[in-house]
């Protein structure tokens, strides 16, 4: 477990070094991005190392090189600390409990998964060989782009950047790939939890500060974040702990049967022909796939979108600040969003789209009225700049990548999800979002009791909205707020500002007209409220027509209905941007769910009943994350709306109490039902030992080395005694430097073939051909590439079976292979071949326990 704390300490240092940058970027959030400093530090280090390696191929991917980049970033951070340390210290003192809580969340969640992984850390089953191989091959690569361990001579044609990120951290602190696999998944678990915590707490803290200002109350910034801690923890609980209701259904249907054992795997396969993973399942599995590793970064993108959504007055590129900070903030945003595609291409359109829509709404609020040419122009320029920059910053990846995507398809009428299946997956979230919609409709948008005075235009005292930091004007009773570039002026010149004649006149006029000006605002609110419900009624009627004509689109219509209701109420609650953003996340999630009923991304599975398998797999995972934050923050707004409801009669109070009680009971029952998975699944995944649900080689050494199980694995769990392989692989990792090609037997996917290349990172001719075909399906459209692909398997067989040494050496030379591995798996696959003959014309460099490794002289 000491390796886990090494990884934790490294990320803590990166987080501290990145604090000045987060303070600059996240100027609109109450915590100034404190919770996001770790993920941003990791992103900046990884990008700086990667872009240099991809542009200057002569640079070595080594520990010394990474450490040099680390020192340069540390020096830059040190200069930034000189100008910001007082501000950061002040924030730390003001929000000490929040900061301590965030640290406990990060470390606690890392340790929680670390304990589970230490019980069974083995890299075995499923696609773990593939993911471990990516990490090992990246760490083995002397130069970039990194080698494909199962297709020698070519780089990885997959979304490898998240694997690269953990490989870089592990290389910096000297961890092996088999250990980094486990410390990495624990790190991503803790980082995801921390980011969820930060996003939710900032949403609610901003709303609390805004409400206090709107009510003429003194803003207590110290308590604004402190009061949000339960909701931040709730978002973590909903995103990473609870399971779906399919697990509850399994237990309910079978728990009374004799010998019943909970199947921890089947709740991830609810809809036929698809995969419906959720984070609790994925992390319990320790799935090291791109969609799981990228989850922390997608949550971070939500926080970034929130930051720009809350920007009060920035028009066009002024959204990103003024002076040099404008370019820095734009660059950081592009690096973060652009990195999503090279981590997991499925996430890029969702979170780039979410960010651009958030910026579009912000620009509309900044310009007012919305439908202006200047507004549309500014939105277009910002969007083009972000998308273009996010592409060009990662251009070296695209130049070495052939996308496996084959376009967009329309789902067949018989291949749709039922409402019952959606409830089994998202039942708790549907309940929470419906509750939020109702309460948002009942909660009247707040208006300031004293509307903002219309101060005369002045180059000295510009008035802009600044929700997250109250200026002295607020404390003096004036309901307007300051921008970041004016705070230092107003903080030192409050009395002077109040003595300004133009301001005194404006305040006096406002006091006289305060009550009368509230009436038009109330009338506008009522008018908007009537139009809202009229539009909803018309939409529901159109939904009934669509359902009558196309009954198989029930889930699509339901999802779009919830999404459009969320969007309608978003604009209704736009005075409180935090509330509106919460609705925005829920609407985005149900738009994704509805979209999956119409469209799917074509891949090699598109021809049959599994055409939507990967589409639902990747996009439902995104919807779960969005709904977790929406529900965690949404509970705050639900409670807030209930507190504001006013009833005048005793009967109405009794009715209200009954409704609230029934709602609370329903929520509690759904939460308890969703707890079935975290209560039962870990037991059957890690601790229950029988022939069906667990492996008898469960380790008690509390190690995080994912390769250690090979030293003990015996049939029937393993195909053969793997202890000899374990010793040989360790020898290769110790004595073979660089990335020479090694020859090992080709096995089927999900099998022991490729175990040497996976655990050493040394490239081999071909292995797991089914996966290589998936990754290179469009690359294989070239007949020459297709011939090369199929020829590799034939050449591999010839190396092990050909009687001519010249033929063997010729094939070895063609692929620049230097080593041949002969172990139990090779003997099993080629039982009639003379595998000892290699010693006659090659050097024997290793011969222990039945494994022989030969090297070309």
TrEMBL record:
Transmembrane segments: 6-27, 39-59, 65-84, 96-117, 187-207, 228-247, 288-310, 317-342, 348-366, 373-394, 423-443, 531-551, 557-574, 581-601, 621-642, 654-680
Domain of life: Bacteria
Keyword line: Membrane, Transmembrane, Transmembrane helix
InterPro entries per record: DUF2298
Protein name: Chlor_Arch_YYY domain-containing protein
Organism: Dictyobacter vulcani
Highest classification ranks of the organism: Bacteria, Bacillati, Chloroflexota, Ktedonobacteria, Ktedonobacterales
């Amino acid at each position: 477990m000491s390796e886990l704390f090494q990884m934790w300490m490294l990320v803590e240092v990166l987080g501290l070094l990145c604090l000045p940058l987060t303070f600059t970027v996240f100027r609109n959030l109450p915590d100034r991005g404190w919770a996001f400093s770790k993920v941003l530090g990791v992103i900046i280090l990884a990008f700086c190392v990667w872009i240099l390696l991809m542009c200057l191929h002569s640079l070595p991917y080594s520990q010394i090189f990474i450490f040099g980049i680390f020192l340069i970033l540390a020096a830059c951070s040190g200069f930034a600390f000189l100008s910001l340390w007082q501000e950061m210290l002040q924030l730390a003192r003001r929000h000490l409990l929040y900061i301590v809580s965030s640290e406990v969340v990060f470390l606690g969640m890392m340790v929680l998964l670390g304990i589970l992984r230490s019980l069974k850390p083995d890299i075995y089953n499923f696609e773990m060989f593939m993911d471990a191989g990516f990490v090992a091959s990246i760490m083995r690569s002397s130069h970039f782009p990194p080698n494909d361990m199962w297709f020698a001579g070519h780089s990885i044609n997959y979304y490898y950047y998240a694997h690269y990120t953990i490989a870089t951290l592990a290389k910096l602190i000297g961890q092996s790939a088999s250990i980094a696999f486990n410390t990495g998944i624990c790190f991503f678990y803790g980082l995801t939890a921390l980011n969820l915590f930060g996003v939710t707490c900032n949403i609610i803290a901003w709303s609390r500060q805004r409400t206090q200002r709107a009510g003429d109350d003194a803003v207590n910034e110290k308590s604004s974040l402190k009061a949000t801690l339960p909701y931040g923890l709730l978002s973590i609980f909903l995103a990473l702990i609870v399971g779906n209701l399919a697990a509850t259904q399994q237990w309910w249907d079978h728990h009374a049967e004799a010998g019943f054992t909970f199947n921890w795997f089947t709740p991830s396969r609810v809809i036929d022909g698809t995969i419906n993973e959720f984070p609790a399942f994925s992390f319990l599995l320790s799935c090291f796939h791109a969609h799981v590793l990228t989850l922390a970064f997608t949550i971070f993108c939500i926080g970034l979108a929130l930051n720009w959504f809350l920007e009060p007055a920035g028009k066009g590129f002024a959204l990103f600040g003024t002076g040099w900070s404008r370019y820095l903030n734009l660059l950081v945003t592009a690096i973060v969003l652009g990195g999503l595609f090279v981590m997991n291409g499925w996430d890029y359109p969702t979170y780039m789209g979410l960010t651009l829509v958030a910026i579009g709404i912000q620009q509309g609020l900044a310009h007012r009225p919305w439908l202006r040419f200047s507004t549309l122009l500014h939105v277009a320029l910002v969007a083009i700049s972000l998308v273009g920059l996010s592409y060009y910053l990662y251009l070296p990846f695209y130049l070495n990548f052939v996308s496996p995507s084959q376009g967009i398809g329309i789902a067949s009428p018989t291949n749709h999800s039922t409402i019952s299946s959606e409830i089994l997956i998202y039942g708790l979230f549907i309940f929470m979002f419906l509750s939020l919609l109702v309460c948002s409709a009942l909660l009247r948008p707040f208006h300031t009791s004293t509307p903002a005075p219309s101060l005369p235009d002045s180059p000295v005292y510009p008035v802009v909205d600044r929700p997250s930091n109250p200026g002295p004007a607020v404390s003096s009773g004036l309901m307007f707020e300051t921008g970041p570039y004016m705070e230092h002026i107003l903080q030192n010149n409050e009395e002077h500002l109040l003595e300004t004649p133009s301001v005194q006149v404006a305040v006096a006029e406002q006091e006289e007209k305060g009550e009368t000006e509230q009436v038009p605002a109330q009338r506008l609110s009522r008018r908007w409220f009537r139009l809202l419900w009229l539009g909803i009624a018309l939409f529901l009627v159109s939904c009934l027509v669509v359902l009558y004509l196309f009954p198989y689109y029930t889930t699509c219509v339901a999802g779009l209905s919830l999404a459009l209701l969320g969007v309608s109420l978003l604009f209704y609650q736009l005075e409180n941007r935090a509330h509106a953003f919460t609705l925005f996340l829920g609407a985005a999630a149900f738009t994704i769910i509805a979209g999956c009923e119409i469209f799917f991304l074509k891949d090699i599975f598109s021809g049959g009943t599994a055409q939507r398998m990967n589409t639902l797999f990747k996009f439902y995972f995104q919807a779960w994350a969005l709904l977790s934050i929406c529900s965690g923050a949404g509970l705050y707004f639900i409670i807030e709306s209930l507190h504001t409801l006013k009833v005048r009669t005793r009967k109405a109070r009794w009715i209200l109490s009954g409704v609230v009680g029934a709602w609370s009971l329903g929520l509690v029952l759904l939460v308890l039902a969703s707890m079935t998975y975290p209560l039962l699944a870990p037991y059957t995944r890690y601790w229950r030992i029988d022939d069906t649900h667990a492996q008898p080689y469960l380790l008690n050494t509390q190690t995080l080395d994912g390769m250690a199980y090979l030293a003990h694995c015996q049939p029937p769990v393993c195909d053969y005694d793997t202890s000899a392989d374990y010793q040989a692989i360790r020898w290769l990792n110790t004595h073979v430097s660089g990335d020479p090609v090694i020859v090992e037997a080709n096995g089927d996917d999900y099998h022991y073939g490729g175990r040497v290349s996976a655990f050493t990172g040394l490239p081999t001719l071909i292995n797991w051909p089914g996966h290589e075909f998936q990754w290179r399906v469009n690359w294989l459209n070239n007949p020459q590439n297709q011939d090369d692909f199929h020829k590799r398997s034939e050449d591999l067989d010839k190396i092990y079976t050909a009687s001519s040494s010249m033929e063997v050496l010729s094939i070895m030379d063609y692929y620049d292979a230097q080593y041949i591995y002969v172990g139990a798996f090779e003997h099993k696959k080629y039982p009639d071949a003379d595998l000892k003959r290699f010693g006659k014309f090659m050097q024997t460099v290793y011969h222990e326990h039945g494994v022989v490794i030969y090297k070309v002289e």
